[in-house]
Amino acid sequence: MLPSVTRHMGKCDNRYEATYRGFDSYQGYLDGAQSYWNHAGDYRNSSTLSDSAGETPACATAAEVNGVYSATLETAEVARIVAAHPPSKPLFMYMAFHSVHGPNEDPYPVVDVNETFPEIVDPARKIFAGMVLALDKAVENITSAYKAAGLWKDTVTVFSTDNGGIGSGNNFPLRTTLLRLPLPCCLLPAGSCARDWGAQVGARY
Hints:
The protein is an alpha/beta fold. The chain has five helices and four strands, in the order E-E-E-H-H-E-H-H-H.
């Protein structure tokens, strides 16, 4: 089974969407970025996979999911697919979070940035740190979904990023940023907490 929860695919022609390229389902949007809360425009949901009751849910429209934080929306789709998947069968899941990408939007109530990051003075940096923590929580929730479904012990997870910090992000001590060469990356030790990382870079800059 090949489900995909992603972004930035198939805008020029729907034949390039995930379901035309070998995936069984697809939820996401077609542009490079959108609001974390307002999903109007190019939001897509072409999932055809049945839930645990054997029923195929109706595809949600952008209007129906407006007001739901994107990481929450994406994680819920992953959890739904995983819960219905037989542990004895292989599962390849491609999950491309919107986070952390522009626009810089407050993730409240997913994360209360003022309560969580009182040490960060710059409001934009504080919001950015909250967006990173919201991503961290989403990864934790997906991990929990795999464990609850009995899939975790046979799962290999690959976590990567493509942009580096832009805007309120910061790549220090690495050089430059997105659209500049060399493209930076940031490697954190396994088990690192986004809150601690956000506090460090927020306090430093």
